[in-house]
Amino acid sequence: MKALTSSDFLDLWERGASLHPLDQGLLILGAGLPEASYDGLADWPLGRRNAALAQLRCACFGSRLEAWMACPECGEKLELNLDGRSLAQAPTGAQLSEPIVARGHRFRLPTSRDLARVARETDSRSAAVGLLESCQLQLGESTSWSEDDLDEVGKRMAQADPMAEILFTIHCPECGDECNTTLDIATFLWEEIAARAKRLLRDVHTLAFAYGWTEKEILALSEPRRAFYLEMVQQ
After folding, report:
1. pTM of the predicted model, to two decimals?
2. Are 115 and 22 in contact (CB under 8 A)?
């Protein structure tokens, strides 16, 4: 996995700002794995994609993930602290050799491409059916999927690829409520990259104005050296 440079952050932010979050995630992953094709990454099972993004996140920002959310019961602000290394090293369905069998049907694991096919679907049940049918291996007559069918297939897929959806439980110390929530690692990492890119542009503006250096010259500076120049300018 290639760690991202300052120039990479700016390039990703500029190219991906108008993209759908699914495409942003693949764009980031492609920057960390430049030898991989975009189409190839789009066909990775979601767990493999998420683990790789967590690995890249650790390389660029460190292993500690911090976020905030409001308790759904009382609105208390809750802090989330996660170890990115545990996500990067978590088992995925990447090595799954046999199809998933449920309700007499055979399925493969969902990918970013499958999510993209149902991304515009506003009805959650229709989206679930669309995703299931996108992953169905055998072709045949259309099937009327019951809620039990959807639950069973979803359960089997989650067991086969536990990193496809990053779930965790949070306890609120204020009201005692426990809630389940998810971490979208692609969106989380994109927001960090966008924040880093904007900070870099502010640094470039400040140092270019003070010293007349070009963007390329400023980005070529190491982080400690750039920070020291900024400190001197701001004194």
Report:
1. 0.91
2. yes
Diameter of the chain measured on Cα atoms: 73
Which three-class secondary structure state does DSSP give residue 107? Answer: strand
- Work out the burial of residue 171: count CB atoms within 10 Å of its CB; fewer than 13 is exposed, 13-18 middle, 19 or more buried: exposed
Which residues are registered as beta bridge partners of 106?
A: 101
Residue among 91, 5, 79 nearest 50 (CA): 91
- Tell me how far apart the alpha carbons of residues 46 and 73 are, in angstroms, rounded to a whole number: 31
The span from the CA of 214 to the CA of 212, in Å, is: 7
Helices and strands (H, E) in the chain, number of each type = 11, 6
- Start-to-end C-alpha separation, the chain: 39
- Contacts for 184 with CB less than 8 Å, ≥ 6 apart: 21, 166
Query: What DSSP designation does 17 have?
Result: T
Instruction: Going residue by residue through the chain, which has 235 residues, state the pLDDT in tens, using 9 for 90 and above.
Output: 888 999 999 999 999 999 999 999 999 999 999 999 999 999 999 999 999 999 999 999 999 998 888 888 888 888 888 899 999 998 888 778 889 998 889 999 999 999 999 999 999 999 999 999 999 997 766 678 999 999 999 999 999 999 999 988 888 888 888 888 889 999 999 999 999 999 999 999 999 999 999 999 999 999 999 999 999 998 8
Helix (H) or strand (E) holding 166: strand 166-171
CA atoms of 192 and 145, how far apart (whole Å): 39
